[in-house]
């Protein structure tokens, strides 16, 4: 039976997928930016005793050397015998009095002065966990399915948050930081790929917009929660209890038919497709025909291969190796820059809570700029444009700080907006550059390895806290600029179908084979891979020849 044409229609099931993506990414901000609430260090002094004890009877404080009077890490003791034989001594403080009524990891475990190095180390350990979790999520997603990987990492992040709140020592907290990082990013990676595979080409950009928008909404809620919860423990408990709202995802999330077909599970794929057709109101759709239309886009030899054999084939393609090298470098630079800017929020001038809120507004604005960029400029040009702007903002910030604090904050917020756009763009682009069988694994490898850049970010922040930020900022600006230049070598994937095989990935941006229909029919509820390439585009000399 001939079905009527529905090309371009936003199906009900696609809308449902986009809503689920949006809601699923909201809590990711609680984990990713928890340090703004848990690691905040308020002003302090040496247990209120950083004063001179000169002539103890009179408590004369007029002769304190200025370098001691302003150093909260030292205690200055001056004594004499009736003004004679004066002795000056300094002592390293062992306990501190904090000047704000907040309870954070820094205040509870006294992570200041000679223990201040522990704070960036804890953040780096979190990034180590993120690296391991990202790689694990990719393997689990490609080996066992998108759905089970998403559920494991979604529920895992909530349990990890509650467990971390019971930390009774720095060592215990450090261990839970690794565990928290392990579950922090996996669900985001998987839902991005799942959304990419379950919506049409026309909706792929919008699906990722939903993921980024949910993350930015979570960022705004983070500002409110940081204000409401003065105790870091209760902040983490609340972040974990939010997981109760996500229990229905166990029944709402379906496996990707694209993945099922790519791994030879034809019967399960047909069951999901039947559900999608029914949900879209296509009750009379021929499910066998629907399955065939999708299945014909899956290579027969791909179905018989494992993820590992596909990766071995990837090794034989210099084009894809070069593409992967550029992707990995870009991910690390983006991650380093993003976290160096975002987690430095507490060190900006002005009200701390307002700065977090302004940062969240910037994050939200970045999702709209991202959507405009990738739909009008394309993936490659968007990344390059916004990385160039980020480079300029990072380089200018330390010089503006010497002139006016507000100008420096403005430059930092602009850089945060543009680096967030670049982060969103590379997430989207990464999922469109490699074949189905290794799509999540490559995304996980890229995201996981980028935590090396994330580990460097706390060190950059710590260097800025303890000295001049000019040199670190200039160095960051240079590598950001280089990352944008290298991205010239990447192919543009705007309005191209997802590659299913190594050969299709190699041939991105080449011409559409003639004789393939560009129409989609009503019995094609899943159409992300049934629309061919729409145009021939110029191929960069290295990666697409």
UniProtKB/TrEMBL annotation:
It comes from Phallusia mammillata. The keyword Membrane applies. GO terms for cellular component: membrane. This is Organic cation transporter protein-like. Signal peptide: none annotated. The keyword Kinase does not apply. One of its GO terms (molecular function) is transmembrane transporter activity. Keywords: Membrane, Transmembrane, Transmembrane helix. Its main location: membrane. InterPro entries: MFS_dom (IPR020846), MFS_sugar_transport-like (IPR005828), MFS_trans_sf (IPR036259), Sugar_transporter_CS (IPR005829). It is a multi-pass membrane protein. Residues 20-494 form the Major facilitator superfamily (MFS) profile domain. The chain crosses the membrane at residues 148-166, 172-194, 206-228, 234-252, 317-341, 353-374, 381-401, 413-430, 442-464, 470-490. It is found in: Membrane.
